[in-house]
Write a structure and sequence with these properties.
Strand order of the largest sheet: 1-3-4-5-6-7-9-10
Distance between the termini: 26 Å
Number of strands: 10
Radius of gyration: 18 Å
Strand content: over 45%
Structural class: mainly beta
Number of helices: 1
Largest sheet: 8 strands, antiparallel, barrel
Length: 175
């Protein structure tokens, strides 16, 4: 147990020292791991954490995203998630997202992505656009409240008739 505590303390110290020596968290070559909570995005693919109950159906989702900064303030990101809609006869869904995020002035993330979901012959596709604010609570940790809009891109997503607006809060760790 003592070895585990010592290892954990050294790892946390090493991550903090790396973030302080390496400059800004959004510098080229950095990696970000992100988990979001989504509010109001009941129908887009979910690569975050969600729990909803509507008309007796409880749906849930869990996932995360990872990004690599190809240049200062610009990350290429991908995400995966899994969820269940709570509807009888509908199995769980695999959710995915791929896109980019740019940090304007290092603190205002703006993102564009393609995201979708698949399961039971149902594969909606959305174009996602989001903007927010990155509050750095430490050199390598940020909380990002933001607004998101999903534009339906195929028949399963309503061909633009089924667009979704939402609020999310992201929790990010940078390496």
């Amino acid at each position: 147990m003592k070895k585990l505590l010592l290892f954990t303390a050294l790892a946390v110290f090493g991550l903090n020292a790396n973030a302080q020596e390496g400059g800004d968290a959004t510098d080229q070559g950095s990696i970000v791991i992100e988990v979001n909570t989504g509010f109001g995005e009941a129908s887009t693919s979910n690569t975050g954490i969600s729990l909803r109950s509507v008309d007796g159906n409880t749906s849930w989702g869990f996932g995360g995203e990872v990004g690599y900064f190809v240049m200062d303030d610009l990350a290429v990101k991908a995400g995966l998630g899994y969820g269940d809609s709570g509807v009888d006869g509908v199995d769980g869904r695999l959710n995915w997202k791929i896109g980019g995020k740019y940090y304007v002035a290092g603190q205002f993330p703006v993102g564009v992505d393609a995201n979708g979901s698949s399961g039971n012959d149902f594969s909606p596709l959305w174009l996602g656009i989001q903007a927010g604010y990155a509050w750095f609570v430490a050199d390598n940790v940020s909380i990002e409240p933001g607004l998101r809009y999903g534009l339906g891109m195929n028949e399963d997503a309503g061909d633009g008739d089924f667009n979704v607006f939402g609020l999310n809060i992201g929790f990010n760790v940078y390496f």
